[in-house]
Amino acid sequence: MSRRFGIVVDGTAALPPDLARAHDVQWLPLKVILGGDAYTAVTDPTLAGRPMHITPAEFYERIKPKDVKPETSAPNVDECNSAYDAAAADGTHDILVLTIASELSATYSVAATQARQRGKLRIEVVDTRSLAGGISLIATAVARLRERGGSFDDAVALARRMAGTIHIYATTDTLEYLRRSGRVSGGAALFGSLLSVKPILEVANGVVHPVDKVRTRDKAVARLRELISARTPLGSRIHACVLHTNDPERARVLGDWVQQQYHCVEYFLAEAGPVIGARAGPGVIGLCWYLEGAA
């Protein structure tokens, strides 16, 4: 039988807590910084109330004032070691770590550097060239391989093949938080607000590209559907994650359409969490997916 190995995802992954537990996936936490205080961003309700932890609901309430500029930070050495120790708790010496694209965060660099310091553990850190649900879909794919008895080397190879291949389209409800984070200029954000512009974004090989803009929320969802169906024919067998930031109901509407129009071999809906929300704000919805057989 192949040796068991650990799987770790970073805190930007959009993975429902129950699914993470079912697949025995560990978390490498990231932090959001509010008013000079650093909080561990969590989406698991069982962690609510812990000191210096912040849930999505708490986070979005805290960032409502326009003078609040949330920041994010990569994990530190102790947090990397804690995640690696948790993944090795059952005696495994092999750990696969899946991180957000290196263009978007220093997490990959920190995680890889610390992995090299853990000589008794074999730790492979893979830059997924993705974020949020893209990381999660790679994690569930390697978890299924592990459950079938696949080797650690096979899992690493699979993760590297899938890196940069997950399709992601999303829309955000406002440009305000992108302005606060410095991702767009103040003038562009004001222009977008006045015209009720809803940008349509694509994440491709680690880079976020604007692909369109529309005037209303309904048109944004309709445009997402057009782009998704143009990329992948309706009726295809897909693995899919619908993500959102503090907007579960609108995400469910998109998810219902996805499940009606495609044969979802795998499907889940997940909160993307405060780290993504610190950049894009509340009201993001999107689809992350890949074709069955493409992995």
Uncertain segments are none
Helix content: 25-40%
What is the total number of structural domains? 2
CATH architecture title of the largest domain: 2-Layer Sandwich
- SSE string, helices as H and strands as E: EHEEEEHEHEHEHHEHHEEHEHEHE
The span between the termini is: 23 Å
Number of helices: 11
Q: Report the major sheet.
A: 6 strands, mixed
Mean pLDDT: 90
Shape descriptor reads globular
Binned strand content: 25-35%
Q: What is the CATH third-level topology name of the largest domain?
A: Hypothetical Protein Tm841, Chain: A,domain 3
Oligomer: single chain
Rounded to the nearest angstrom, the radius of gyration is 19 Å
Number of strands: 14
CATH top level assignment of the largest domain: Alpha Beta
Structural class: alpha/beta
Strand order of the largest sheet: 11-10-9-14-12-13
List the helices and strands and how they pair.
Layout: E1 6-10, H1 17-22, E2 25-28, E3 31-34, E4 37-41, E5 53-54, H2 56-62, E6 71-73, H3 77-87, E7 94-99, H4 107-115, E8 122-127, H5 133-147, H6 152-162, E9 167-171, H7 176-180, H8 186-194, E10 198-204, E11 207-214, H9 217-231, E12 237-244, H10 248-261, E13 263-271, H11 274-280, E14 285-291
Parallel strand pairs: 1-2, 1-7, 4-5, 7-8, 12-13
Antiparallel strand pairs: 3-4, 3-6, 9-10, 9-14, 10-11, 12-14
Helix pairs in contact: 3-4, 5-6
